[in-house]
């Protein structure tokens, strides 16, 4: 019960890695709130966990819009108390051409994948500073270091997430607030599985380069995140934890 008495807030918690983080956090004793843009899935997941006796709250939010995030934050804090652990998990993918991508598309994408990480911190840091305690975990990606053709917005955003993580670690460490990043590799989320269903040859190609001959389960990413949220990681600050089964060790 390493997160007992903590209030953990997870963005994009209705499915995939986010849902796995929500589950692991409640199993470790935390009160957990989460937001998502997909309301039916969020409500159903919260009801399922509540029925199992966990303290869980869902609130709809579009992380790309500060007012939407603030509304969710204020409602959640009113119900469950100040947030002591934040997980910035929400994000979207971007496959684009550097010439054809528009400014509008770029801005909308970065609002979700990078700007929201600042916005959530802006909301939770005042209470964390007052308490002289807190932990933030930002979900980045191995795309920050090694990437794929036409993923330039995604690689740029995830590199930005790691840079923001480092600066928050420096700026907030004096308040005993730790900020770290987790960079997953191939993880068996519903999004990845649907991509493999459409393009079976990509699954074969991807499996062929996995050093452990498999891809990550969402629960394996979640356990790293909850460790970083806990006091077991009390002196881990400003780090980027690569959780890719060794994929980024491979020479192209």
From TrEMBL:
Q: Which residues form the signal peptide?
A: none
* Gene Ontology molecular-function annotations: oxidoreductase activity
Which Pfam families does its entry note?
adh_short_C2 (PF13561)
Q: Which domain of life is it from?
A: Bacteria
**Keywords of this protein's UniProt record, alphabetized?**
Oxidoreductase
- SUPFAM superfamilies referenced in this protein's UniProt entry, alphabetically: NAD(P)-binding Rossmann-fold domains
Could you say which protein family the record assigns here? Answer: Belongs to the short-chain dehydrogenases/reductases (SDR) family.
Q: Please name the PANTHER family in this protein's record.
A: DEHYDROGENASES, SHORT CHAIN, ESTRADIOL 17-BETA-DEHYDROGENASE 8-RELATED
Record protein name field: Classical SDR family protein
């Amino acid at each position: 019960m390493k997160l007992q008495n903590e209030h953990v807030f997870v963005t994009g918690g209705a499915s995939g890695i986010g849902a796995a983080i929500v589950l692991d956090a409640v199993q470790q004793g935390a009160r957990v709130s989460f937001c998502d843009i997909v309301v039916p899935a969020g409500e159903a997941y919260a009801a399922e966990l509540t029925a199992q006796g966990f303290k869980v709250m869902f609130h709809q939010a579009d992380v790309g819009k500060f007012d939407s995030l603030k509304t969710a934050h204020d409602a959640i804090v009113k119900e469950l108390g100040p947030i002591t652990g934040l997980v910035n998990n929400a994000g979207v993918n971007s496959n684009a051409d550097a010439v054809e991508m528009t400014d509008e598309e770029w801005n909308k994408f970065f609002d979700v994948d990078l700007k929201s990480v600042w916005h959530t911190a802006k909301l939770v840091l005042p209470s964390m500073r007052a308490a002289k305690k807190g932990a933030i975990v930002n979900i980045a990606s191995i795309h920050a270091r090694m990437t794929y053709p036409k993923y330039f917005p995604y690689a740029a955003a995830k590199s930005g997430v790691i840079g923001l993580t480092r600066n928050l670690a420096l700026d907030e460490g004096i308040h005993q607030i730790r900020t770290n990043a987790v960079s997953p590799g191939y993880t068996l989320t519903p999004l990845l599985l649907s991509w493999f269903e459409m393009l079976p040859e990509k699954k074969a190609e991807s499996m062929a380069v996995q050093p452990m001959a498999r891809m990550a389960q969402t629960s394996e990413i979640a356990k790293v995140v909850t460790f970083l949220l806990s006091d077991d990681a009390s002196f881990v600050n400003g780090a980027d934890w690569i959780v890719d089964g060794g994929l980024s060790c491979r020479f192209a």
